[in-house]
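pinned: reference chain
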Amino acid sequence: MSKNPENKEILGTPETGDWVECDDGILRFIKKDFVPYEKSLQIAEGLLKKYNSAIVAHIKEIQEKYANELSKHKDWRVGLKIGGVEGVDGIRFAKRDAIRPVLKQFSEEDLQRFSGHGISRGLHENILAAFINILENSFIKGDVGHINVHAKGDYGSRTHSDTNADFFIISHADKRLGLFPKNETDKKLLYNKGAWAADAGAFVVNYDFYPIIDELRKMYPYANIVKANELSDFIEKELQQANSKKDNKKE
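pinned: its structure tokens
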């Protein structure tokens, strides 16, 4: 997300759109014309082809480290079926999920101050394409929910976001991920072409895609793209800033 003077923000990389005042008091430029998913898929396929060897080596490293555990637990409670990267056996298991262990370091009370959206369905190229499309457009298709990693077996629902995901978009502390217009009495999310405008605090990359994160950061310098193991720093900083604002209001 880029910014310009006078408390205005431009979502994504817009060409045409409208300035909309949101209910947080910030004037944002909301795109009308989106980068199509098909273009994002082409970018994703190019990245996976370029970094295939690095991704395979990265994944196999941890698969070999936990080979005994993997051989004993090939069921949905430990891993999800995936594919799309040549040279990977298609089993994604718990040791390759770096997001939830980080989130579990925080209390349920702290996590309730954030909302999120996870991307986990499909092959690697489809998942990466969906993530790139959000980076391009700052609009999301799908559910948004609170973060809850302390409830057993809760990997995502209409009220809780999918944290067991290859990519995870998280809000700022005490702010909603979805944007609402200021003057709408029914307070519906800002929608366009079946997607809703998002104000992301961070774009989180899970273990499998670590090898491409530097290139993603170069491609989208306005976005706060972080590795899963860097997520705790973001959350701690957000909580500190939000708490400081609350304390200042009390004075």
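why pinned: The radius of gyration is 19 Å. The longest strand covers residues 17-21.
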